[in-house]
Design brief:
The complex is a heterodimer. Chain A has five helices and no strands. By secondary structure, chain A is mostly helical. Chain A folds into two domains: 84 residues; 73 residues. Chain A starts with 10 loop residues before the first helix and ends with a helix. The relative contact order of chain A is 0.12. Helix content of chain B is 56%, strand content 6%. Chain B has a single domain, classed as 434 Repressor (Amino-terminal Domain) (Orthogonal Bundle). In chain B, strands 1-2 form a two-stranded antiparallel sheet. Classes of the chains: A mainly alpha, B mainly alpha.
């Protein structure tokens, strides 16, 4: 019996939900969307002009939710990537898509970092969050597109 | 590598879906093996051989250059 780091197949769906929750949480906390959640849950303090006063604990809660969301996203990503495919062929397709996504991400990260270093109008430190976000988005985009193409176009069964 | 999985399956009067079910993979996997787009693991090749009543050497053959 061989041992591996892979997780059983059902973890894939659960991990996808965690990943999606993490993305929603990150979007919510980085765009001040949490205030709208307050507004829906407790509409009483809404001002006549439609604005809503920030509660005292807002920023602490926003930060905690942000960290939790990043945690959920990381956990979901890890679980999804380490979960086995339904069978060995699908596992092979997932691995191929993963390779393309990883290479694309690395090239993009290197290219963006280099362009920031070469251009003198912004520092690498300032651009770091943007570069990381671009890397993450490109990874998942390429992974999804590549897996979809391999599974539903290239190896389509009539 | 070439294979005779399709011929052996037809000879055994099995559909792709039936063979897939018996060896516990998807029909897409069987199709990919038959058209030569995927080389199965030893375990899966043995299972296919068992279901079709053939030895691995009868189902899969090395080509020159492999």
């Amino acid at each position: 019996m061989t041992r591996s780091f892979s997780l059983p197949v059902p973890y894939r769906t659960a991990s996808l939900w965690l990943l999606a929750l993490g993305v929603v949480g990150v979007c919510l906390t980085t765009s001040n969307g949490l205030i709208n959640v307050y507004r829906v849950l407790d509409p009483a303090p809404t001002m006549p002009d439609g604005s809503y006063p920030y509660p005292a604990s807002f920023w602490q809660l926003n930060q905690a939710l942000g960290l939790l969301s990043v945690g959920l996203f990381s956990l979901g990503s890890g679980g999804f990537l380490f979960a086995r495919g339904a069978d060995e062929f699908q596992q092979h397709l997932r691995r191929t898509a993963l390779q393309y996504a990883a290479v694309t991400q690395l090239v993009l990260l290197a290219g963006l970092s280099l362009s920031v270093v070469v251009r003198s109008d912004s520092s690498l430190g300032q651009a770091f969050p943007l570069i990381c976000t671009a890397g993450l988005v490109s990874f998942w985009l390429v992974y999804g597109l590549c897996y979809g193409y391999l599974r539903y176009v290239q190896h389509r069964v009539k | 590598m070439t294979n005779n999985v399709r011929a052996a399956r037809t000879e055994a009067h099995l559909t792709q879906a039936q063979l897939a079910e018996q060896v516990q993979v998807s029909r897409q996997t069987i199709h990919a093996i038959e058209v030569g787009k995927y080389i199965p693991s030893t375990l899966l090749a043995l299972k296919i051989g068992q279901v079709l009543g053939k030895r691995i050497e009868e189902l899969f053959r090395l080509e020159e250059g492999d």
